[in-house]
Amino acid sequence: METVQLEIQSDQLTSLGCEFHPSKDVMNNLGVTSQGLQLFQSFWNNLPTDQHMADGGVYRQRRFGVYHYIPGKGLAFKGNEHFFQSKNVNKLNGGVARSFETVEHGFAHDPVLISLLYWDLYQLPEFVRSKKLKVYIHQIRILANPLMTGNPTPEGIHQDGHLYVAQHLVKRNNVSGGTSQIYNLDKFPVFTTTLKNPLDTLIVNDPYVFHSVTPITSLSDNGTRDMLLVDFNFLEEV
User: Using CA atoms, how far apart are residues 220 and 211, in angstroms rounded to an integer?
Assistant: First the structure.
C-alpha cells in the first residue's frame, strides 16, 4: 500500500484531516530558547512505566494531566482523572478507566508547555476554541534496545476518540523508525512523515482520519522516542 506524500496547507485540518508544522516554525512562533527547551525535555527523564499495556509490553513510560480551557480566562491545570477510551477506538487498551501518575508540578506550569498548549489551541478552528474545552496531556517515552522493539501504537491503525489531537515530538535519541502515517476513513494512507526534530508537530482532526506510527528500533544501545500528546474535547458542564 503506497503512501501519498502531500504538502500540508493551512486549511488541511479540514480538507485532509491533519496538519504538519516543522520544528523551526513552532520554535520560532513560541520563541523557545535552547535552555527552555532543555528544561522542557528533562521532564521526560522521570516517567513511570505504563502499567496498562494489555500486550504485556514494558516499552512505554508515561504521565498524564488535565487542563480546562475557558475562553477569555485561559488554561487552568486541574490535576488528574481516570483516562478512558472505548474498545472501538483502542482495541488493545480501551474499555477500562486507566489511571496514570500525574505530570510533575514543575512541568504542569512549565513556560514552554503552556506556550505550546496555547499555540495548539490557536491552530484549531475558531468554533472549537471559542468553546470551553477539556485538554488532556500525555507525556510518553517509548523505549528500545537491542533486545526490545518499541511500539508507539501497539493498537495499530486507530483513532483516539477526541475532537483534535496534537502530536509533538519532544526528542529522539539513538533510534530509527517511528514514522507517522495518516489515513482517511477508508484507511487509505494520505500523509506520512517522520518527526525528527524537537517540536515537529502533527495536529489531527481525529473523527475524520486514522493514524499509526511504525515501531522504533535502537541504533546501538538504549534508544528513546519522547512525545507530548494533547487531546482536545468540549468541556461538559457539571
Answer: 28
